[in-house]
Structures are given as structure tokens and as C-alpha cells.
Design a protein that fits this description.
This protein has about 400 residues and is of the alpha/beta class. The chain is about 45% helix and about 15% strand. The chain has helices at about 5-15, 25-35, 55-70, 100-115, 130-135, 140-145, 150-155, 160-165, 175-190, 200-215, 250-260, 265-270, 275-285, 290-305, 305-320, 340-350, 355-365; strands at about 20-25, 40-45, 70-75, 125-130, 195, 220-225, 330-335, 340, 365-370, 370-375, 380, 390, 395-400.
């Protein structure tokens, strides 16, 4: 396999802004990439939710760049570790999933990541692996051998555990096992490089220690940004349902990107598009935030759904928001009632999740029926065929 050692291409990856820390050092890692040696990269994901968001997408896109340099790339699905529960950045123990839930999530994820990596490549396709292949075979003796390399003090010093101790919340014994299991992944796959979020550096360092112990081998750790909002510090989260999600339809995806705050525009351009840094800077300088965001939404939708779908999503968005027209297609519902209280109507159509949310949106003038703003949350609505109910800017439903 030919390894590309072009320093311009390597530096574009290392300096783009997606990578925030490299251990033991960026200089050493760069030398290794320039050496021409084929490296084995891996990134792991616990299948703790049925979908992924743009912060995950940028990791797959980064791995694809390393693959294009000729290196071996492994996408590891933590089907075993997802059943333990990662304590990282948690103020309480994470819910442990059943094997059935994990398998279902992995199946969906494999579909979501296909547009982000060239799995059809004949010479060097990305590999998908599952850590149950080795973790489920470990004996109790094996586990004791792994655990003997670390102290309780090393584990307990982690920030999330210190916070729980301070707030008198429990720390469960199985949560100490998680970094050991994730660390052992590096040994089982005999990797050269682990790519991870900055929240996973502790677990990656455990793997680095175990690889030195069992294989007498060095491992590079490439930590990537978590894409947090610079103003609020909020992160995209698959477990909390916050962010722009990869399973959205092209139109919804386009709309979700357009709904992102202005301070996220450059962050999303850098991490979730293939435009060069110069193109990104020129675009942001020359366009208004709204127009820059429209280009961003188009680029992201094109990557995940293709150019035709991106153009259709763009047209639909402009039709609704610029021309104030109704969408060309919208969900439909059959209602048998002749009339309903407006709060019941909004919950029955599933445009809102609760009556309290419906009431809040009405007070905020976020509900329209037949293009008329609704101000009275106690109102009784007469149900009519063809009635169009709108919540917010993008949620529509038609009564048929």
C-alpha cells in the first residue's frame, strides 16, 4: 500500500483545527507520518443511542483523511463497553444497555456513516470491528492482570469522580472497569494511533500504558475537538438528543444547520466540510452570517445526502423562510374529533411533546393555524379538513 508523505497534505490535516492535542507530541507524530510507515489508526464509539450527530461525523471525516494517506483505519464499535457504561463527564452512573439495544444502535450507525468514508474502496477500505470479539472472552484472571497495572488513586482522581465524591453521589465499582476495557482495545487491535475526543484522553492513556506493558509498543493519541459552543459551552450529545443529527432527512438536516447559532458557523465549516481553510475564511469575510450559514447547510447536506438532495433542501428552505410559502410536502393526520382544546390538538398531532411545551410556544407566538398566530392557550379549535398547523419555523402538519 503506497503511503502518501506529502508534508502539505499532512500539515493540512494536523493544522486544520479539528485536532487539539497530540501525545506524546505533535512533532513526533508528524515525523511518523512523514516516515512512510503504514500506521494502524482506530477510533471507538459506544453505541449508547440510535443516532449520531455532526460532532461524531467530523471524527469519521478525519479518519477518512488518514485513510486516504494510505494508513489502515479501524472503526471500533463498543458493543461490549456500551453495556458497561462510560462514566466520562457524567455526574451519575450511565445507564447500562442490553445487548439487543446495542446491536440495534450499531446497525443504524453503520448506515449513517457510509457517506462519510469510502467503504467501497478496493485497495484500502475502512475496517469495522467490535470489542465484544475480545472483551467477552477475557477471564477473571485476565481482568485481574489488567487491573494490576493501575491504582485506585489513579482512577479516583478523575474529575467526574471527584465531583461525585464532593456531592456525595455514588461511584459504582463497574465504572472503574470501563477505562480498563477501553484501554485493552488498543492491545487487542495492536494499534499505532488512537483518535478520540478530549473527554476520552484518560481512557486513551490507559490504553497507551497497557500497550507498553503487553506489547512494548508506543501509541500516539490524537485528541479532537468536541465542537462546543464558544458562548454557552454546550456540546452536541447523542444521549441528551442535543445537536444536528445524521439520521435527519435532507430538508430537516438543512434546517437544523440553519438553526445553529452564528458562533458555530466557522466551527462547523472547519469540522464538517471539505472546504479549505482559505475558502472558509474568504467565505465568512465576504458573506453575511445568514448567507454563510446557507452555504454551510448546503455543504453538509451534500456530504450526507448528495448534491441533488442538498439543492432540493435549499429550495424548500428558501420557499418557507424567504417567500413565506408552505412546504411542498408535509406530514398528514386524520382527526375524528369535531373540536379540540388547542393544547390537546398540539399534543395529539405530536407537534409538541407536552401540554406545557404547547402552552409556552403559544405564549411565545410560535403556533399558527392556517397561517394565523394563536395567542390563547385556552382556545377550543374547530377541526376542519385541510387545516394546516405550524409550530415554530419548520414543523407543519395537515389535517386530512
Amino acid at each position: 500500500m503506497k503511503i502518501i508523505t506529502d508534508p502539505t497534505k499532512i500539515d493540512e490535516i494536523l493544522n486544520r483545527g479539528t485536532i487539539v492535542k497530540i501525545l506524546p507530541s505533535k512533532e513526533e507524530f508528524r515525523k511518523k507520518l512523514l516516515s512512510g510507515k503504514r500506521l494502524r489508526f482506530y477510533i471507538g464509539f459506544d453505541a449508547t443511542a440510535p443516532t449520531l450527530h455532526l460532532s461524531h461525523a467530523k471524527n469519521f471525516m478525519l479518519m477518512e483523511k488518514f485513510r486516504k494517506l494510505g494508513h489502515e483505519v479501524i472503526i471500533l464499535f463498543g458493543d461490549f463497553t456500551a453495556m458497561i457504561g462510560d462514566p466520562t463527564d457524567r455526574t451519575s452512573a450511565r445507564k447500562q444497555l442490553s445487548k439487543k439495544e446495542v446491536i440495534s444502535n450499531v446497525k443504524k450507525w453503520k448506515t449513517l456513516i457510509k457517506p462519510l468514508m469510502d467503504f467501497q474502496n478496493k485497495d484500502n477500505p475502512p475496517k469495522i470491528m467490535y470489542n465484544s470479539q475480545w472483551l467477552s472472552k477475557l477471564t477473571f484472571k485476565d481482568l485481574i492482570g489488567i487491573a494490576s497495572n493501575f491504582t485506585v488513586q489513579q482512577m479516583i482522581e478523575r474529575d467526574m469522580f471527584q465531583k461525585r465524591i464532593a456531592s456525595k453521589k455514588p461511584i459504582y465499582l463497574h465504572e472503574f472497569l470501563y477505562p480498563l476495557m477501553q484501554g485493552y482495545d488498543s492491545v487487542a487491535m495492536n494499534v499505532d494511533v488512537e483518535v478520540c475526543g478530549t473527554d476520552q484522553i484518560f481512557n486513551a492513556l490507559v490504553g497507551r500504558s497497557l500497550l507498553k506493558k503487553f506489547k512494548e509498543k508506543e501509541k500516539y493519541i490524537v485528541a479532537v475537538t468536541l465542537m462546543e459552543n464558544p458562548k454557552t459551552g454546550e456540546l452536541m450529545s447523542k444521549s441528551k438528543g442535543i445537536g444536528v443529527f445524521l439520521d435527519a432527512t435532507p430538508k430537516d438536516l438543512y434546517g437544523q444547520v440553519m438553526a445553529q447559532p452564528d458562533e458555530m458557523i466557522k466551527i462547523l465549516f472547519i469540522n464538517n466540510t471539505f472546504l479549505s481553510l482559505k475558502e472558509i475564511d474568504d467565505l465568512i469575510k465576504s458573506k453575511s452570517p445568514r448567507d454563510a450559514k446557507a452555504r454551510l447547510a448546503f455543504e453538509i447536506t451534500k456530504i450526507l445526502h448528495g448534491e441533488k438532495a442538498a439543492k432540493e433542501a435549499e429550495k424548500e428552505f428558501n420557499q418557507i423562510f424567504k417567500q413565506k410559502s408552505l412546504p411542498s410536502e408535509m406530514p398528514e393526520i386524520i382527526l375524528k374529533e369535531k373540536q379540540l382544546p388547542i393544547l390537546d390538538l398540539l399534543t395529539k398531532t405530536k407537534l409538541v411533546s407536552s401540554k406545557s411545551e404547547a402552552q409556552r410556544l403559544i405564549v411565545q407566538k410560535g403556533v399558527k393555524i392556517n397561517n394565523q398566530i394563536q395567542n390563547d392557550w385556552k382556545k377550543i379549535i374547530k377541526i376542519e379538513k385541510g387545516m394546516i398547523i405550524q409550530v415554530g419555523k419548520r414543523r407543519f402538519i395537515k389535517v386530512i
